[in-house]
């Protein structure tokens, strides 16, 4: 949560003014952080959680899939901040349903949940198994 708090200070939020920080603990012990990055074309904004995940991929060895062991997110919200739907789906790609997610605010409130609780029934590569099989047979 402390790493997420520090990352939040680097958010680029000229439009909403709502800074968010995220920190991921990877299976190899590394902590990878991210902050939200907004754009004049508002819909292109990247949330803190996805910034952190994409950074973890960019900083991993070629072909390696980062395994996320824990997630922390913080914002200056009245209640612990809640990740958006897009970030829940992106987190599910590199986490297990049991991966703990710590949601916090600047007042020190922290709620613990999990990736599976945030997004039950996430779409996953397992649902594309037949497509991959067909590729192999071709
Ligand atoms: N935002 C995040 O970065 N993470 C969340 O969990 C919720 C929303 C950002 C997107 C946008 O820059 C700002 O917060 C307001 O929506």
What does this structure look like?
The model has no long low-confidence stretch (mean pLDDT 95). With 138 residues, the chain is α+β, with helices and mostly antiparallel strands. The protein has helices spanning 2-8, 48-58, 85-94, 115-118, 129-137; strands at 20-26, 31-35, 68-75, 100-105, 110-114. The N and C termini lie far apart (48 Å). The longest helix is centred in the middle third of the chain and has 11 residues, at 48-58. The protein has one domain (2-137): 3-Layer(aba) Sandwich (Cytidine Deaminase, domain 2). The radius of gyration is 16 Å and the shape is globular. β1 (20-26) and β2 (31-35) form a beta hairpin. A five-stranded mixed sheet has the order 2-1-3-4-5. It binds tetrahydrodeoxyuridine. Tetrahydrodeoxyuridine (THU) binds next to α2. The site of tetrahydrodeoxyuridine (THU) has 15 residues, from α2.
């Amino acid at each position: 949560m402390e790493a997420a708090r520090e990352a939040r200070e680097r958010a680029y939020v000229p439009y909403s003014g709502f800074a968010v920080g995220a920190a991921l603990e990877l299976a190899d012990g590394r902590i990878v952080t991210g902050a939200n990055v907004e754009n004049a074309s508002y819909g292109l904004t990247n949330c803190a959680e996805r910034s952190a995940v994409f950074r973890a991929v960019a900083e991993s060895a070629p072909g390696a899939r980062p395994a996320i062991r824990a997630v922390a997110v913080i914002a200056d919200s009245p209640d612990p901040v809640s990740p958006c739907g897009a970030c829940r789906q992106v987190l599910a790609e590199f986490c297990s349903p049991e991966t703990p997610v710590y949601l916090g605010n600047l007042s020190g409130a922290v709620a613990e949940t999990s990736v599976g609780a945030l997004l039950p029934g996430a779409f996953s590569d397992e649902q594309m198994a037949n497509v991959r099989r067909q590729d192999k047979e071709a």
